[in-house]
Amino acid sequence: xxxxxxxxxxxxxxxxxxxxxxxxxxxxxxxxxxxxxxxxxxxxxxxxxxxxxxxxxxxxxxxxxxxxxxxxxxxxxxxxxxxxxxxxxxxxxxxxxxxxxxxxxxxxxxxxxxxxxxxxxxxxxxxxxxxxxxxxxxxxxxxxxxxxxxxxxxxxxxxxxxxxxxxxxxxxxxxxxxxxxxxxxxxxxxxxxxxxxxxxxxxxxxxxxxxxxxxxxxxxxxxxxxxxxxxxxxxxxxxxxxxxxxxxxxxxxxxxxxxxxxxxxxxxxxxxxxxxxxxxxxxxxxxxxxxxxxxxxxxxxxxxxxxxxxxxxxxxxxxxxxxxxxxxxxxxxxxxxxxxxx
Amino acid sequence: xxxxxxxxxxxxxxxxxxxxxxxxxxxxxxxxxxxxxxxxxxxxxxxxxxxxxxxxxxxxxxxxxxxxxxxxxxxxxxxxxxxxxxxxxxxxxxxxxxxxxxxxxxxxxxxxxxxxxxxxxxxxxxxxxxxxxxxxxxxxxxxxxxxxxxxxxxxxxxxxxxxxxxxxxxxxxxxxxxxxxxxxxxxxxxxxxxxxxxxxxxxxxxxxxxxxxxxxxxxxxxxxxxxxxxxxxxxxxxxxxxxxxxxxxxxxxxxxxxxxxxxxxxxxxxxxxxxxxxxxxxxxxxxxxxxxxxxxxxxxxxxxxxxxxxxxxxxxxxxxxxxxxxxxxxxxxxxxxxxxxxxxxxxxxxxxxxxxxxxxxxxxxxxxxxxxxxxxxxxxxxxxxxxxxxxxxxxxxxxxxxxxxxxxxxxxxxxxxxxxxxxxxxxxxxxxxxxxxxxxxxxxxxxxxxxxxxxxxxxxxxxxxxxxxxxxxxxxxxxxxxxxxxxxxxxxxxxxxxxxxxxxxxxxxxxxxxxxxxxxxxxxxxxxxxxxxxxxxxxxxxxxxxxxxxxxxxxxxxxxxxxxxxxxxxxxxxxxxxxxxxxxxxxxxxxxxxxxxxxxxxxxxxxxxxxxxxxxxxxxxxxxxxxxxxxxxxxxxxxxxxxxxxxxxxxxxxxxxxxxxxxxxxxxxxxxxxxxxxxxxxxxxxxxxxxxxxxxxxxxxxxxxxxxxxxxxxxxxxxxxxxxxxxxxxxxxxxxxxxxx
Lengths: 342, 741
Fold this sequence. Notes:
The structure holds two protein chains of two kinds.
Chain A: H1 2-20, E1 27-33, E2 61-69, E3 72-79, H2 98-101, E4 109-116, E5 144-148, H3 152-175, H4 180-197, E6 198-199, E7 204-207, E8 210-216, H5 217-220, E9 229-236, E10 289-290, H6 298-301
Helix pairs in contact in A: 3-4
Chain B: H1 12-17, E1 32-45, E2 68-82, E3 85-93, E4 130-139, E5 147-152, E6 175-183, E7 188-196, E8 216-225, E9 230-244, E10 257-274, E11 278-291, E12 324-336, E13 344-353, E14 408-411, E15 427-430, E16 434-445, E17 448-459, E18 501-514, E19 520-533, E20 580-583, E21 586-589, E22 602-616, E23 621-636, E24 652-667, E25 670-685, E26 694-695, H2 698-704, E27 711-714, E28 720-722, E29 726-740
Parallel strand pairs in B: 14-15
Antiparallel strand pairs in B: 1-2, 1-29, 2-3, 3-4, 4-5, 5-6, 6-7, 7-8, 8-9, 9-10, 10-11, 11-12, 12-13, 13-16, 16-17, 17-18, 18-19, 19-22, 20-21, 22-23, 23-24, 24-25, 25-29, 26-27, 27-28
């Protein structure tokens, strides 16, 4: 009896919510498709050795869709395999569990979306998030970046730190030593850039192979437009968060390349990073899967010569659209989906 | 949807390699990289224990405590000799008993018990010692094999039912050689390892005997992916613990060996993956173990490390049963991921873990082999406040009234390890003998997550007289390990002499992110457990003849009842009759005579509610506050069973409350954490009729801290169970600072 009493309300609540839910009811703003089976970086990348939660297909992006939602845009990324939920397993010295660390329901992937809102040559930033090691084409320079990552607040703090360090180094190179007020001004500039340009979603939902996240109008200046350019990249997520080693061991150690919560790549195969990396290419991108426009391949962008990475414009007739995708308003006919080159 | 350090080892292997956290590994540039972690922990608790810088241990001679501040440092070394060779290791200081109050660890008494830092510089646990850990060389030649790792490893790449995470303080204490390869474009993968058998615990009686240097476990697993839809795999493990052959006295031609303990496990696994929607997985294992049981290595363990217990008394301790055992284990999982595209998924699991299933290298913790969330870790040891043997003096609770936080993890071994943990860490419980079904619907809609569970569990250990009428109940192959009494499930108890038990677990959880500011996390949980255990369910096992004790309480004739045809064995050898006592002019039995099969019955009605909220106050600070209420109505035998004569009785009503505050803060890259808990509540005993309550004497006041003259009864072994309502209050705090560099 007691069991019945306890389970019945749960069942009713689920059914009530299920009936009220309307995934399909939202207006599709645009859809970008990506071929299945291209989660191999430059073609040689191999998943970490024997990681049950990170097997081929896990980071294989199949589609990125944008839906109009009250107050903003809901992006929905679908992968080839179900997204693993963080298990309740101790992962660090403090006794913290993975489920506590990755509070948003996923822990294996980062999804970067660089949005070129003005599509003007040279306007915006061409760099990518630290550790992605990619450069966007001048015509795809981004004004806004969406970074879906398991620890958004920690990532934001880390990005702040890395951007500050970079800004200070550049200023020192140009100006020599920096006074306190100059440092403060640089930090404020970084803070403004961070606030205006990069958004780390926190309203996240993971169901099966799909992760969706909400981006408010305030950040994008409205809902996402199909006429904008989108450069989308998937990386493996690292839960580690390190501070830089003091210089007192400088002669002995090399400073690590600054990465933002991203699993690295190297030659060989290892359980803790991607394998199949190129020998003699310390700057190789660890991006596993990305979207490229027609006429260009993922292998090229992630290859040794690594040409600048152009964004994809959903409204472009030459670009892939889902059958039910429309223009910015979600209306109108769309061309048949043609997957970009992987 | 459940897919389910001292503790630096928590990230040992990965962290050592994560010295290369950046995107790509600059294979030519750094020859050697050094990273590290510093970790400072502050424990505070009103139990005022201060044995060590962790909350819990069961190991004799080790301290435990909930007060003190200590600091650890770990240096992670990683050298890339070439693109195909990598060396890693750690140099690690330890908390143990290195309190700040040690003032560097000078002085001390070398002849003391060496807890609470009292031995100062004379004991490594209190003199800020540094240990070498996690040394491993990894070869990736690019041909023949994918990878070969020689040295330390956590061996978590195998299967928790067979060879799993075997952490003992550090995760990578185990050493061995691991070779991994693949063929047919990686459709076929294989892993083979030889693992040095941990002498500390990996054999009967928690030892591998006197001759340990060649003891090892060998494991091989393979998997073939026929297509994206179907894969098939197998795993085989063999463990051999040898000793010197006592009959080989001719030393000129070397020494022969003689097996002390052997253990083999074979398993097959299959997976059917129907797109991203339906996933079906199954596994079947068969185990064999043989612990030498002819007294070949002697009949006593006194000064004889090779000794193997031939049997256990009613309450023995060992990570494996005695004798020779074979048994099966299987599980079948189905996951249906949002088939209706409405956010509703379902996980289901059917499982059976054999009573005699043994894999000495199975995961001891940090794994969860079952879908069910099992019991709550708040009640994980006997007694109302988690105090084993609490009826006797000198056995206070260790983890405390608050227990551990959250639910438990299940492991397929009785070799469970919760040593050196703090209250906020996950706790593992044995699932040996469990058989049942779990359904776990999960629903997600926007900011709302709902999850439910219903589990029905019965037990392969439902038996009478350990399943063998031909032996005394104090002569068994099964280590009782405290035996199963208490509010919850004793985390390392799989066996008790009489069991007829079923468990129902129902859980409903909800989480909602309120769209306010950075989003307020609202979460709640309801959990209900109904458990029924008839234990001794056949009158032939009752200790004494019917009518042995006079109903007017004037005495017993002590005519035993024998359960075997030869008339040798009686439970009366353990459950002796009471004497009589006169209190305030009333004469009767000291405890109820065990004359009814219902005297040891267990019926648990367990309800818990949890409600809380969390908020990201700033980019750097996250805080949450949660309240949990536990209401437990429990009958766990009356004074005839008296907690198997060993433990505080828990029959009665438990009303427990817990308030928990958590915070995480990052300052300049350094992580700070806090968990503070206030647990309070009461236990109102109801031990049933049939005896005359006694009044506590000075001895009981001294032994177990009850009030002089308070009501209770003295048990068969002289332990005292109070009949007065007990009120508990447990305040504890853990704060830490962690910096990785």
